[in-house]
Design a protein that fits this description.
The complex is a heterodimer of chains A (1083) and B (498).
Chain A (H helix, E strand, L loop, with lengths): L30 H10 L4 E7 L5 H10 L3 E9 L5 E6 L2 H16 L10 H7 L3 E6 L6 H14 L3 E6 L6 H15 L3 E4 L10 H12 L3 H4 L14 H7 L4 H13 L22 H16 L6 H17 L2 H17 L3 E4 L6 H6 L28 E5 L3 H12 L4 E9 L2 H11 L4 H8 L12 H6 L7 H13 L3 E13 L10 E3 L6 E6 H6 L5 E6 H17 L13 H8 L12 H10 L4 H10 L2 H5 L3 H8 L10 H7 L9 H10 L5 H13 L6 H14 L4 H17 L3 H20 L1 H10 L8 H10 L4 E2 L11 E3 L8 E3 L10 H9 L8 H7 L4 H9 L10 H9 L30 H12 L7 H5 L21 E11 L8 E7 L2 E7 L1 H6 L1 H6 L2 E11 L2 E11 L2 H6 L12 H4 L24 H4 L3 E2 L2
Parallel strand pairs in A: 1-2, 4-5, 5-6, 8-13, 9-12, 14-16, 17-22, 19-21
Antiparallel strand pairs in A: 2-3, 3-4, 7-8, 9-10, 10-13, 11-12, 15-16, 17-18, 17-20, 18-19, 20-21
Helix pairs in contact in A: 1-2, 3-4, 11-12, 11-13, 16-17, 16-19, 21-32, 21-33, 22-32, 24-32, 27-28, 28-29, 28-31, 29-31, 30-31, 32-33, 33-34, 37-38
Chain B lengths: L4 E5 L3 H9 L8 E7 L2 E7 L1 H5 L8 H7 L4 E4 L2 H14 L7 E4 L3 E5 L10 H14 L5 E5 L2 H10 L4 E2 L6 H4 L11 H9 L5 H5 L3 H8 L1 H11 L16 E10 L2 H21 L2 E12 L4 E12 L2 H9 L11 E13 L16 H13 L5 E5 L9 E5 L20 E8 L2 E3 L8 E6 L2 E14 L14 E8 L4 E7 L2 E7 L2
Parallel strand pairs in B: 2-4, 7-8
Antiparallel strand pairs in B: 1-6, 1-7, 2-3, 5-6, 9-12, 10-11, 10-12, 13-14, 15-21, 16-17, 17-18, 18-19, 19-20, 20-21
Helix pairs in contact in B: 6-11, 10-11, 12-13
């Protein structure tokens, strides 16, 4: 090592024993924090070794790079016999063996565990430096083990010694030093590091509580006895190891021997798909041209021809052919299996991919430049994600495992981090707060939010904000947010390698059978330039495939994604009217509000539509400028000619992720690599404090190039927004195609569309009730579930009138009904069932299942009411008696028929919701309406004067709090006349938090806002009326028959004299409103 | 003779009991809760709480959110049950045939007894008034069968008196739940629209039985009196007391000894039969003049050992003042427990009570059992919190429960650390003490090992442990082996090694 002129020696200590947060529920610092702290302390390298895992090494490696340190990576091996070793690979080959060693241990143990024996270490131990950790009591066993390791692995074995102010340190260090001399395994000093700084002791204790599932009060001696297990400077370490300085210096010797760096990992594409005797490039060329001829039967247009040539040249140059062919191979298999798929991602919308059938976005319609997505300069792999039908993706996944083997293909991991809710929950539990307090606290955060709970929110739910425990809980929870919690499998990111995958990264069992997962997540893989193909599941593709099938079956016309008629004006007109329920991507509240303003007329408008209603552009305040320019309300200007190049297609307003990155390059002087680093920093290391330096550089760069401050800030916030929810143009284009295809189907075949959506549930934003309602509003007759007509899936039946088929609800709509029972029911139907007993005898369906059918009112075709059918079903025994098959009356004689009380409409609807989650008979609000005073139906929102407050009431369909809307809540309420879009400002929300968060039936008074066909109601006052839903079930609403029994329905207790304030007058024992009328929240 | 059953329902028994003791809750919302799985659920609410919309079955968190100042207490089912039992005994003044009905109700069979109170309606009014004065919310009803009375009390008008005979018409409008069916059956009936008992009357009996089992028919028949439903009156349980009355008053110590011996024999025979041991015995003598005197002995653990108890009493019997003579004596086992089976050494014959237990008995009876304590381990790193003192009568957890300390601990630990004048080379935590002052003289430190750094637990603020302590094991030139610590650069003496 070179010494500088002042002759200052590098600090003579490197920490070799550090656990990171990737030793889950133990390590109290992130790998990056350890790297940064090591640099601050003047170390020249940082080493991490997590328990039986390499999950944190990429982040440690990147953290070390950022801190200008050498990253040394390894693992701590905790063996089944109780021994612990630190293992550091000397070179790439040894690293591969370490990865295989861990894979071996993990594959033989259940998910999350590892089972290793000394023999395994010997098997894979070549080239590994081993530091043997001393147990608490230095006994003869340990001395013998150490000698054994030394004998087996020679001078690669060291003895690790640490000192954490334990009282008998001196004696222990001397004993270890003696042992080192006896065995010949030199002693190396380590810090036994658990945290980067002493103040993490509190968090370390909480993690112990989580690990041991106890509270801090029960933690006892599992508390950290002191805060000494933190990273220390060389000077501190020398002081602690006084008399054993050689052990400190030896850390450098060990570090010097471990020269392996993750940078050495080289990724190779698999070469299977290429037929023998051909180069990948030749094969790609051949297949591309073959596809081109199919795509353009009338002759390949000149533009396409040029595009193909150009792209093939680029592919050749960058050697990406094997990659495209790997994707192509998967798509071919899907097509063979009849599974609909659609590629997206940076390289997916190229001409080559269109010809290969990877995408159906026609390059002649969308002008996407290949170079924009594949940058020769960055040298990173192109990115193609493929969406498959969600019900059939597993087939594709198993194909990949079969084709490449488990040694070569594995799913990427997803690191599950502590979010606001999980952090509060776990810390609250550890701090000994009662279960209900913890739930109440957790309910104050929004789903996946990374915000914690503040004291004000705690006060609101009735907790004392001055309570020390509570304050500690919230503070520690905030610290825990962002910590990795465990590894899960990525939704579909596959890593496929040419060589052994388990020599690249350890592979472990996933929670699901037949799945194996690598230890790194997508950011880790990205950082190392390792190819990942996303095999994703998309419900809309299932719906579309089913829809195309039904169109062919019932209307005799054949379409697919590529042949759906293009640029159909009626389809665009429908979207302009915000009539988009069920349509892919543009059915959300925000999209529906935006469609009438955007007025899409061409395919590219849809591409923009998909990308613009996203956190990035919204946060960057790009939406309104774009709309104004589009509507010619403001001139289209460019901040500079260079930017005109970048922003020309979006009227000078950056909307896509690539544009934001390009601005960083063109206007702020970043290199493309730096711009990408910026994006990644936003996405991954948000909390790592690197953002500010990027921001400063960005602003400085923009200023230097003469852009104004405000514009620079807007661009930067947009990049921030993109970080988490990036939406590149190519993704938008692929999605836009699905938007168009689904909208086209809805416009022309609303019957087919609704049927396909129902059969592909769960899917999208709306529940079956709304899909059915929308279909009916579009003139589709919807028929109830019926034992004599329904199959498992919803089906189309000839209608008596109208231009569409009638939609018959399927048995799948019945809660808890099994597909197998449906098959039996269909198979034995013959000429139809005449009684519930028929089903039991002929189809062999259990009485409990027949009862489900009765509860679902599925005996309409034999004119049997729900109650009569239930009455009949209740009489069925456990198994049909074969002897009496012809005489069901045998054991009870003929029963006199009974007359059961006629239900009210309210009861009917309630029962419908209970079994089907929807009712064709009436809307609950329609039934409640006569009893509602001063409540306007939602349809009046369109006509009422704007200056008067108005009150509406409805079922909550959805609640949203977009991160970009600064605490504003959007709620959608539905009544029998339509929906109301409610806006709740933070102040009103704070006053009604509980109601807004948990109410199922809300009464809202507020002020109207109308812009064109977009109507909002700004809430001033909200009331939770959910109890009315329960009252439906006990004779509420319209009474069809007044009976003396009605009085009996309500017990006289609680005493009518003490009339409670704002609560249900009666509590139905089932209290089902919550489950019956669910909302979709917080998306 | 036909029965006349009064059903008393105490819908707020659990909260009323608390209100009786703590009247502040009369106007403030109060909810009692139990732990139900992962959550705390409200099981009882007072009237003020109901006003705020709080109802049994809610999660406690939801209830708190409805009313922030809600008072909450854990539900104590044992106390509620005991209170209900006490109320049953109280009813003895009206009828010997009183029984508990579930967890919150009573049945009284008043057949042929109401005339003593001026007739049925006067009796009912009086009953209601008494219960109200005791502070209980009640709903009462009278009918010929327990089933009907219970249904009318819970679902009818309070105070209703069904005329003698089959109460068919009165029951008909009541909800089916009044029949005391399984909740599951109630739900199924509701689904069919069969809401009232009258709806059930209208249906052929066998169709009901076929669908809902015999339970439903049995309940209807019980309510209508077609099948009998006995109520089982509760018997007061006898305490473990034995009594001896003397023909001639006694006063001699020897006579008292004899009396006690006979009482002990009788009492222990009964305890032995029930496999119980006594750990507290009270001996009471009644003097001729009507005054009395009690004395008690306790044991560290429940026992049936006559000799042991006699020995313990012997120490105290001198205190008995016979006055003009003792006419009766009682011996009561005030605290009994099931006896733990004990390993008997067959070869050694009958096992002797171990010497330590005997010592604890003796000391405890002389000094009070609270004064006899032993050390038990506590789970903490802090040396002064790593043990606690508990009454010696509580079973010891044994030597295994004491974990090995992370580093040697002194034999004697001072209750309060003493400041000590010690000096080290530097203020550095790793720098050992070089000299210290003991008994006015400065001594050199010959050996020092440490530090052992112990940091206070952080979950509570701790005045004794404002910051970490660095402990040293020290031996000075005089040979004294000390446990010192340095905290914020001041030295303290905390213990002595042997």
């Amino acid at each position: 090592m070179l010494e500088d002129s002042t002759n200052r020696r590098p600090p003579p200590y490197i920490e070799l024993q550090a656990l990171t947060a990737f030793s889950f529920r133990e390590g109290a610092s992130l790998p990056e924090e350890i790297a940064r702290r090591a640099a601050e302390l003047g170390h020249v390298a940082v080493a991490v070794a997590d328990r039986n895992s390499l999950a944190g090494v990429v982040r440690a490696h990147m953290g070390a790079k950022r801190a200008d340190l050498r990253g040394i990576i390894g693992a701590r091996l905790d063996l089944a016999d109780g021994q612990s070793l630190l293992a550091y690979p000397e070179d790439r080959a040894a690293y591969g063996r370490l990865a295989r060693l861990i894979t071996t241990g993990r594959r033989r143990a259940p998910k999350g565990e590892c089972e290793l024996y000394p023999a395994d270490v010997l098997d894979y131990g070549d080239g590994l430096i081993l530091l043997v950790l001393a147990p608490r009591v230095l006994d003869a066993d340990f001395a013998r083990n150490l000698a054994d390791w030394r004998a087996a692995l020679g001078d690669r074995v060291y003895l690790a010694a640490s000192r954490a102010l334990g009282g008998d340190d001196k004696a222990r260090l001397s004993a270890l030093a003696e042992l080192a001399i006896e065995t010949g395994a030199p002693m190396v000093a380590t810090g036994d590091v658990l945290m980067h700084a002493p103040e993490r002791r509190v968090l370390a204790d909480i993690l112990s509580c989580i690990r041991l599932t106890c509270t801090v009060d029960e933690l006892g001696r599992n508390h950290q006895i002191n805060g000494e297990r933190h990273l220390k400077s060389a000077a501190q370490m020398l002081r602690l190891f006084e008399g054993h300085e050689h052990a400190i210096h030896r850390t450098l010797e060990v570090a010097d021997r471990c020269r392996f760096s993750l940078d050495e990992l080289r990724y190779e594409y698999p070469d299977e798909p290429v037929p023998p005797g051909m180069s990948p490039q030749e094969y790609l060329r051949q297949e591309t041209w073959r596809g081109a001829k199919q795509r353009f039967p009338g002759g390949v247009p000149e533009k396409v021809r040029a595009g193909i040539e150009h792209e093939l040249k680029l592919t050749d140059q960058l050697n990406y052919a094997p990659y495209f062919l790997t994707v192509y191979d998967i798509v071919l298999e899907a097509r063979r299996l009849g599974i609909l798929c659609q590629g997206r991602g940076s390289a997916a919308n190229s001409t080559v991919c269109y010809c290969l059938g990877i995408t159906s976005v026609n390059p002649t319609e969308v002008d996407l430049l290949f170079e924009r997505f594949i940058s020769a300069e960055r040298g990173e792999p192109p990115d193609i994600d493929i969406d498959f039908e969600h019900e059939r993706r597993e087939e594709v996944i198993q194909y990949i495992y079969k084709r490449y083997g488990r040694e070569r293909a594995g799913l990427a991991a997803t690191v599950i981090h502590y979010r606001g809710r999980s952090a509060v929950r776990e810390v609250g539990k550890a701090m000994g707060l009662s279960a209900d307090t913890v739930s109440a606290l957790a309910s104050q955060t929004w789903g996946w939010s990374s915000e914690g709970v503040d004291l004000e929110q705690a006060r609101e739910i009735g907790l004392d904000p001055n309570d020390r425990r509570l304050r500690l809980t919230l503070a520690i929870a905030n610290q825990l947010i962002g910590f990795p919690r465990h590894l899960s499998q990525h939704v579909g990111g596959f890593v496929i390698t040419q060589g052994r995958l388990d020599e690249l990264v350890p592979v472990e069992n996933a929670a699901m059978d037949d799945r194996t997962v690598v230890e790194w997540d997508k950011d880790d893989l990205d950082a190392l330039g390792i190819l990942k193909i996303d095999i994703l599941a998309l419900g809309m593709l299932s719906a579309l495939r089913k829809g195309y099938g039904m169109i062919q079956q019932h209307y005799g016309k054949r379409f697919d994604l590529a042949t759906t008629p293009r640029e159909d004006p009626a389809t665009y007109e429908m979207l302009c009217q915000a009539d988009s329920l069920g349509v892919f991507q543009v059915e959300s509240r925000a999209q529906m509000a935006f469609l009438p303003r955007m007025r899409p007329r061409t395919f590219y408008d849809l591409v923009i539509e998909v990308a613009i209603v996203r956190p990035g552009p919204i946060q960057g305040d790009m939406v309104h400028p774009y709309i104004r320019r589009r509507n010619n309300e403001e001139p289209v200007e460019y901040a500079s000619p260079a930017l005109k190049e970048v922003l020309g297609r979006t009227l000078g307003v950056p909307l896509f992720q690539e544009q934001a990155m390009k601005i960083a390059v063109v206007a702020a002087g970043f290199t493309p690599g730096e711009a990408d680093g910026l994006r990644r920093a936003m996405a991954t290391f948000r909390h790592m404090g690197t953002i500010q330096s990027f921001r400063d550089r960005f602003h400085a760069g923009m200023e230097a190039n003469g852009y104004d401050e405000a514009f620079a800030e807007r661009c930067f916030s947009m990049i921030e927004g993109f970080g988490e929810y990036g939406f590149p143009e190519s993704h938008a284009a692929s999605f836009a195609l699905l938007v168009y295809a689904s909208a086209w189907m809805k416009q022309h075949y609303p019957d087919v569309f609704a049927c396909a959506l129902l059969n592909a549930q769960p899917l999208g934003f709306y529940a079956p009730a709304q899909i059915v309602r929308d279909a009916r509003e579009h003139g589709v007759e919807v028929r109830p579930v019926d034992v004599n007509y329904s199959t498992w899936d919803c089906t189309l039946e000839p209608a008596l009138s109208g231009q569409y088929y009638a939609l018959r609800l399927g048995l799948r709509q019945i809660k808890g009904f099994k597909e197998g029972d449906a098959e039996w029911l269909e198979a034995a139907r013959g000429n139809g069932y005449r009684t519930p007993e028929d089903l039991w005898r002929r189809a062999g369906i259990r009485p409990a299942t027949v009862e489900r059918l009765a509860k679902a009112d599925a005996f309409g075709s034999i004119d049997m009411s729900r109650r009569t059918a239930l009455w009949e079903t209740a009489a069925l025994g456990d198994a049909p008696l074969p002897l009496f098959e012809a005489a069901g009356e045998a054991d009870y004689g003929w029963e006199t028929s009974v007359t059961l009380p006629t239900p009210t409409l309210g009861e009917e609807v309630y029962e419908d919701y209970a079994q089907l989650r929807l009712s064709l008979k009436a809307h609950p609000l329609g039934i409640l309406r006569p009893g509602l005073r001063d409540v306007a139906p939602n349809e009046r929102l369109a006509t009422d004067p704007l200056d008067k407050p108005i009150t509406v009431m409805g079922l909550v369909l959805a609640r949203q709090r977009p991160g970009s809307a600064k605490g504003v809540i959007f709620a959608t309420l539905e009544d029998e006349t339509g929906v109301a879009n409610i806006i709740v400002w933070p102040k009103v929300f704070e006053a009604h938090r509980r109601i807004v968060l948990t109410g199922r039936l809300l009464k809202v008074t507020g002020r109207l806002q109308r812009a064109g066909i977009v109507i909002h109601l700004v809430a001033d006052k909200l009331e939770d009326m959910s109890y009315l839903l329960d009252e439906l079930s006990i004779g509420g609403g319209f009474k069809t028959e007044a009976s003396a029994a009605d009085e009996a329905r309500r017990p006289p207790w609680p005493d009518p004299r003490t009339k409670p304030k704002h609560v249900p007058r009666a509590r139905h024992p089932r209290e089902q409103a919550k489950v019956l009328f669910p909302s979709r929240d917080f998306k | 003779m036909a029965r006349r059953i009064v059903s008393i329902w105490l819908p707020r028994l659990a909260t009323d009991l608390i209100l009786r003791r703590e009247p502040v809750w009369r106007d403030k919302p109060l909810a009692l809760y139990v732990e139900a799985g992962q959550r705390l659920a409200v099981v009882a609410v007072n009237a003020a709480g109901e006003q705020e919309g709080i109802a049994p079955g809610m999660a406690l968190a939801d209830a708190r959110a409805l009313y922030a100042g809600l008072g909450t207490l854990p539900h104590n089912p044992a106390r509620t049950a005991a209170a209900l039992k006490a109320l049953t005994r109280l009813s003895d003044r009206f009828t010997p045939l009183a029984a508990m009905d579930g967890q919150d109700g009573l049945f009284l069979d008043m057949a042929g007894a109401t005339h003593l109170f001026g007739g049925e309606s006067q009796f009912m009014a009086r009953l209601a008034a008494i219960l109200a004065r005791l502070g209980f919310a009640t709903r009462i009803a009278m009918a010929d069968t327990p089933g009907a009375a219970s249904a009318l009390a819970r679902y009818g008008r309070s105070g209703v008196i069904a005329p003698p005979g089959v109460p068919r018409d009165l029951l008909a409008p009541l909800p089916v739940a009044a029949l005391r069916l399984k909740p599951e059956t109630n739900h199924r009936l509701a689904r069919l629209g069969l809401a009232s008992i009258g709806d059930l009357f209208a249906l052929p009996r066998q169709t009901l039985v076929r669908r809902f089992g015999v339970e439903i028919a049995a309940r209807i028949d019980q309510a209508l009196g077609a099948t009998p439903e006995p109520i089982s009156p509760t018997r007061p349980e006898t305490p473990y007391t034995v009594r001896l009355a003397f023909d001639e008053p006694i006063g001699e110590r020897a006579s008292i000894d004899t009396a006690l011996a006979r009482l002990l024999e009788k009492l222990l025979a009964r305890l032995t039969f029930e496999d119980l041991g006594a750990s507290l015995l009270v001996f009471t003598v009644n003097r001729l003049d009507g005054s009395w005197q009690s004395l008690s002995v306790g044991t560290a653990e429940p026992t049936q050992d006559t000799a042991r108890l006699t020995r313990l009493f012997a120490e105290k019997l001198d205190d008995i003042d016979p006055g003009f003579g003792i006419e009766a004596a009682t011996l009561r086992a005030a605290r009994t427990e099931r006896l733990r089976p004990r390993q008997q050494d067959v070869l050694a014959g009958r096992a002797e009570p171990d010497a330590l237990a005997a010592l604890i008995d003796t000391l405890g009876n002389r000094l009070g059992f609270d004064a006899v304590t032993r050390f038990e381990p506590e789970d903490s790193w802090l040396p002064d919190r790593s043990f606690c003192q508990t009454p010696a009568t509580i079973a010891a957890s044994g030597a295994d429960a004491w974990p090995a300390p992370p580093a040697p601990r002194p034999i004697t630990l001072l209750a309060q650390p003493l400041p000590v004048d010690a000096e080290s080379d530097t203020d550095d935590a790793l720098s050992p003490p070089r000299t210290l002052k003991r008994h006015g003289a400065r001594r050199a430190v010959c050996f020092a090992d440490g530090p052992e750094r112990i940091t206070p637990e952080w979950r509570e603020r701790d005045a004794d442990w404002p910051s970490h302590r660095d402990y040293w094991r020290v031996e000075d030139e005089a040979g004294e082996r000390l446990w010192l610590y340095r905290q914020d650069n001041r030295w303290f003496l905390h213990g002595f090694f042997a």
